[in-house]
Design goal:
Length: 150
């Protein structure tokens, strides 16, 4: 029986660079940052001799974890992670102050896809504001405005 979401993972070309960005963004260090090279790792992912450099974060105010993975063995190749391409993914984070967080993302090195927050005019999030970004490694991040918790 499914019980929810445990984590979201992204493969990155340079874990240390990603850790610098997400540590600043989440204002905390990863709770795990280590090389995973035990036999179960290779068996689990299907790459004999696999060595993964992994960082895990608690996403603030969430039960979902963020996992960042750099493949040390086998070494991968960059793919086109443009958000329009099938098979790509993004991470959507909630914000109670979208204008401030939009500027904060930019100051930390994220590249915005719009000049500022965009108001949603249709659908289930009508009236909220949103922003799309690329982190320094090109991963798409979305910021969605939510009401402050009372």
């Amino acid at each position: 029986m499914l019980r929810g979401t445990h984590h979201v993972g992204f493969t990155v070309p340079n874990l240390d660079r990603s850790v610098a960005f997400y540590s600043a963004l989440f204002e905390t260090e990863p709770f795990i940052k280590a090389i995973f090279d035990k036999p179960y790792t290779a068996e689990q992912i299907g790459y004999p001799g696999a060595r993964l450099y992994i960082a895990l974060y608690h996403i603030p105010n969430s039960t979902v974890l963020l996992e960042l993975i750099e493949y040390l063995e086998p070494v991968g190749e960059m793919v086109d992670i443009e958000s329009k391409n099938p098979g790509t993914a993004h991470l959507c984070l909630s914000s109670t102050d979208l204008a401030a967080d939009f500027e904060r993302f930019v100051s930390l090195g994220a590249t915005p896809r719009s000049k500022g927050p965009v108001t949603i005019t249709h659908g289930p999030n009508k009236g909220k504001r949103v922003g799309y970004f690329r982190d320094p490694e090109g991963i798409t991040l979305e910021l969605l405005e939510v009401a402050p918790v009372a």
